[in-house]
Amino acid sequence: MASKKNVTFSDIAKYTNFSKTTISRYFNNPDSLTLENQQIIADALKKLNYKENKVARILANGKTEFVGIIIPDLYHHYYSEMLNQILSTYETFGYKFLVFIGNKSEETERRYIQELLSYKIEGMIILSHTIPSKELAQLPIPIVTIEREDEYVSSVNTDNYMGGYQATGLLARHHCDIFIHINSPTSEKVPAYGRLKGFTDFCREYNLEHETIIREFGHSYEAAQSQFLMILERLDACYSGKKKGIFVSNDTQANVLLNLLMRKFGRLPEDYLIVGFDNSPISREAVLPISTVGQQIDKLAYEATSLLVEQMNERKKRKPIPLEHPVHKVITPVLFRRETTEKSL
Q: Judging by DSSP bridges, how do beta strands 291-294 and 334-336 pair with one another?
C-alpha cells in the first residue's frame, strides 16, 4: 500500500486560494492575518488532515515550544508534586518542559541555564533559590519564579504569612502550653519567611510562650532524622509535661518528626500536636495523616505557567509590549485539619 502523501503549504494554498506566504504567516505570525483569514486556514487544515512537521517549524521560526524548569530537589515532596503539576499543564498550554535539578551551586545552575538556552527554550520557570532575581531578569527570555526571592522577575507565591498565622491559630485552639516553630535558615527576601513571621506575630499577639528552632536539615531523610532526634531530646528535656504545639515548615520534615515519635511511643503522644506546610501528598499518606497548611500546589503551577505563556505570547506579536514591572501573584492557603491535631478523627 502506498504511503499517504503529506499535506504541504502548497496544498493548503491551493485549497484556500491564498499564497504560500500567507500560509507561512499563519503558522509563524498569525496576528498578521485577519481573524477571518485565520479561520479559513484553520478550517482547511482540518479538512486536509494536516499534520504539522514541528521540526521544520522550529527550524523556520526558532520557536521550540519548550520551557525550562530549574527545581532545587525531588527529596521534598512539595517540589516533586509541583513538578508533576507543572508538567500536567501541557494539556492546556501545549508547551513541553526541559527539567534540571539544582544543587545549590551558582556556577552549576548558570551552566544549566546556558544549556537550556542552547535548546532555544522560550521561557523558564525557576523554583531554585540559588541565583538572584536581578541576574535572572537579564536573561533574554521571560522568567517566572515560584516561592523564591523575586524582586526583579514575575512570580507566583503562596500567602505564607497567612499560612503561618493559620497554623499557629489551629494549635492555639487546642490550648497548647508551648508553641514551637521548626524551620531551615530562611532569608527575609524569600516568601517562605512569612511562615516564621506569621507564627511569631500570632504568638506575640496572644502572649503565648513560644520558641523558634532553626536548623539545616539537608536533602535526605537521614540528615533530617539526625537533626530531629536532637530536637526531640531537647523538647522532652525543656518542656516535659507540657502540651507542645509544633508547626513544621514543610510536610516532608513534619513526616520525619511524626515517624520518630511513632517509633518511640507506638503512637503520637497526647502532649504533641503537629502541623506541617504544603499539603503535599506525604501529608495525606503519612502513617497518621498530618494537619497542614495547603499551598494549593495545582493553582501555583497553573498560574505560573499561565503567567509565563502570556509573556511568551506577547513576544511573538509584531509589536510586543514588554512588562513595565514584574507581576507578582499571590495564592491564598487552605488549612487542612487531620489526625496530628484532631486526634478524635
A: antiparallel
In 3D space, the residue among 55, 81, 87, 54 whose CA is nearest the CA of residue 69 turns out to be: 87
Q: Return the C-alpha torsion angle 239, 244, 250, 251, nearest 10.
A: 120
The β-bridge partners of 146 are 156
b/e 115-125 (16+ beta carbons within 10 angstroms → b): ebeeeebbbbb
C-beta separation of 158 from 330 below 8 A: yes
Nearest to 316 by CA among 156, 113, 141: 141
Assess contact for 81 and 281: CB atoms under 8 A: yes
* Strands 210-214, 244-248: pairing kind: unpaired
For 240-292, the pLDDT digits (tens) are 999 999 999 999 999 999 999 999 999 999 999 999 999 999 999 999 999 99
* 131 DSSP assignment: S
Task: Kindly state the cell numbers that stand for 278.
Answer: 504544603
pLDDT, residue 119, reads 85
pTM, two decimals, is 0.80
Provide CB contacts within 8 A for 106, sequence distance 6+: 130, 131
Cα–Cα dist 255/253, whole Å: 5
Alpha helical stretches, state H, the chain: 9-16, 20-28, 35-48, 54-61, 77-87, 90-93, 106-118, 133-136, 160-173, 193-205, 221-238, 251-265, 281-285, 297-315
Asked if 247 and 218 count as a contact pair (C-beta separation under 8 A), the reply is no
Q: What whole-number distance in Å separates Cα of residue 260 and Cα of residue 228?
A: 8
What is the structure's pLDDT at 344? 53
pLDDT tens for 188-238 read 999 999 999 999 999 999 999 999 999 999 888 999 999 999 999 999 999
C-beta neighbour count of 15 within 10 angstroms = 18
Q: What are phi and psi of 122, to 5 degrees?
A: -95, -15
d(CA 168, CA 178): 11
